[in-house]
Design a protein that fits this description.
Layout lengths: L2 H18 L6 H21 L8 E9 L13 H20 L8 E3 L13 H14 L3 E8 L5 E9 L3 E7 L13 H7 L17 E4 L2 E5 L8 H9 L4 E6 L9 H16 L2 E6 L5 E3 L5 E4 L6 E9 L5 H5 L2 H32 L1
Parallel strand pairs: 1-2, 2-3, 7-8, 8-9
Antiparallel strand pairs: 1-12, 3-4, 4-5, 6-7, 9-10, 10-11
Helix pairs in contact: 1-2, 3-4
Length: 355
């Protein structure tokens, strides 16, 4: 029995005793306690990812170039952000050439690393070419592309040192009131601030790109919070999960650490290595068992390099998807409804007795 399952049983047992009460053990309380043990045990079993031999081990790097300053206006300095990431990548390349660092097969840049569209701006494309050639590997670059007139695309694009732009993941789950404005026409009629909101167009792919022969599940920032998106990517063949993210606008709040915690859950849930690349932190390299191998400081320029496991096996959690969540929710709802009706019945019976 694994440590995780033993802890689950212990937690369920304690929950059972608390539900049973301190006076006398009743049948209904025991049923609730037994149900609690089963729920916790099943949840731990479904989510846990067994230790297996990886398909291969590769060297991966996440680049955190940092931003010029905090706040919502950092995008006005998008050229400086791009230059920061190019510079930090070239610094890593120099360390590789000098033998002080291993050459990575996978290189991940953050969301918004290039807010200048490299498909329409030759200057930005030249810088991406320079960065990729210096490190000798394709880079997954977070960039903002021009869409149809008045629209934008949040893209994580593979940039090859020889061929330039390649496969891309277009962010599917956009942030309301940030990347798009719900009911824009109505809001525009009552507020002059409506046009300040983004007008991004969501993608509709499966979230998987081929980066130097490795299938990467791309969960751009906010997307890592959505079970179905990451599950779809892993079922589609992804063997590593990447989370390119931009946390600069959240300053020194807890948001970036919450995202780190979510990414650790995804690692365990799907049995995949997770690579978080943030513009300003926290960037991290996480094992398939949820262990943080390396973690950056916030608002610093860093490049984290480590060997990671590439795995194609599917965990039980990946196979069953949201079925356990729906089943557990139904059980909890039925228990709560039953308790509510029993309480209402007792109140009414007490009122009849008094009259």
């Amino acid at each position: 029995m694994t440590v995780r399952v033993r802890k689950a049983v212990k937690t369920g047992t304690l929950l059972a005793w608390s539900l049973a009460g301190t006076s006398r053990v009743r049948w209904q309380a025991l049923m609730k306690g037994g149900t609690a043990i089963v729920l916790v045990f099943v949840s731990a079993f479904v989510v846990s990812s067994p230790e297996v031999t990886p398909d291969e081990v590769v060297t991966a790097t996440v680049v955190q170039g940092n931003v010029p300053r905090l706040g919502l206006d950092f995008n006005a300095q998008r050229r400086a952000v791009l230059d920061n990431h190019v510079a930090r990548t070239e610094q890593l390349a120099a360390e590789v050439t000098a033998g002080r660092a291993a050459r990575p097969r996978l290189v991940i840049w953050p969301e918004n690393a290039s807010d200048i569209d490299p498909l329409t701006n030759r200057d930005a494309a030249d810088r991406l070419d320079r960065a990729a050639r210096s490190i000798g590997a394709p880079i997954l670059v977070g960039t903002v592309l021009q869409g149809e007139p008045g629209t934008s695309i949040n893209s994580a694009m593979v940039w090859d040192p020889t061929d330039g732009p390649g496969q891309q993941h277009i962010k599917r789950q956009l942030v309301p009131f940030g990347e798009y404005l719900p009911l824009r026409s109505i809001v525009r009629a009552v507020s002059s601030y409506a046009d300040a909101a983004g007008n991004f167009i969501a993608g509709n792919g499966n979230g998987v790109v081929d980066l130097n022969g490795v299938h990467i599940a791309v969960a751009t920032c906010y997307e890592v919070a959505f079970d179905d998106l990451v599950t779809e990517s892993v079922k589609a063949g992804a063997t590593v999960i990447a989370v390119p993210t931009n946390n600069a606008t959240f300053g020194r709040t807890e948001m970036t650490f919450q995202q780190l915690a979510m990414s650790r859950v995804r690692a365990v849930e799907h049995g995949r290595s997770v690579l978080i690349a943030a513009t300003s932190g926290v960037s991290a390299i996480i094992t398939p068992t949820g262990v943080v191998r390396q973690q950056s400081e916030i608002f610093t320029a860093q490049a984290l390099t480590d060997e990671i496991a590439v795995r194609s096996d599917l965990t039980l959690a990946t196979r069953v998807g949201s079925i356990p969540e729906l089943a557990l929710s139904a059980i909890v709802l039925s228990l709560a409804t039953s308790a509510l009706f029993r309480g209402m019945y007792r109140v009414r019976r007490g009122e009849r007795t008094r009259t």
